[in-house]
Specification:
Chain lengths: ~180, ~150
Amino acid sequence: MSGKTAAYEEIVRRYETRVRHYCLSVLANQSSADDAAQEIFIKAYQSLSKFKGNSSFATWIYRITANHCTDILRKTSRQKTESWEKILESEGEKIEALFSDSSRVSNLEHAELLDKLLSRLDDKSKEILILREMHSLSYQELAETLTCSVDAVKSRLKRARQEMKAICDTFSAFKTSK
Amino acid sequence: MNHAQIKDKLAFFYDPEMPIAERSEIEFHLKSCLECQASIKQFDSARSVFRGAKPSLNPEWFIGSVMRQIRALEAENAAQKPSILPDWLAPLLGYGFALFLMFFVITHKDTAVSAESVLLLDVPQSSSWAFLESNPGINELFEIPQEDL
């Protein structure tokens, strides 16, 4: 194994969880997410010479990841989203647990429910919420990853959080009406 | 900050990037504002959804799969016969040839066959003038008076 390949294996080891996790959150399908994550690491390997160190490697790989997932979403026909009422009827209790104490929900259920909730948001909101709330990227890192200004990040984040809060409000209203 | 301004910033309340002074002001406002209290509670609930959302993924299988593909790529690249010429040579030759053509066109602006030569060639042989004794002289032909010569 060449030195470059061995070093890259270490990079894959270091970032695979974050990349796969992001892909899974955006694409909402384990097998598509794993395929996408593999393509991302191969793409990153082939473009290593383009990484100039102006931003951190994490930001660089997040940028490739976000762009790749956006391309996939653009190419694939949109999955029909389940109606909100249907989700609440079937998963109401679990969603309640998720909003109050997420530790009460198993990992797998958590991921599935989160997919359903995130499917209510537009792609840009989904993207920024995943990067911020799950991957804890700072405003500056978000700006570098999404290639926009910090002000644009704040505005997108605010809108996304308000959309998520609206989902939470809808759920509260539904719970009260029952 | 008034109520509207604080309400506008509630979405960022939990962000560590929020300045301490701003946070303190919001906290103070929250003590007395029921509407903002409800709002911040909803923002917190919405955030809680993301906590602990870490699906268990098998890293070894994934790393192995990626590295296998990369090694295959490397092997494919190594199998390709390496070129003796450096990568920059072909574009350099191309640009050089283009420059040569430009230079050639600029320095050889005249057409290969000049207009004069076409005119000369176009004169019919039968009309060529010969200064013979039987023919009038050039002065007579153009009626130039003797004193002007």
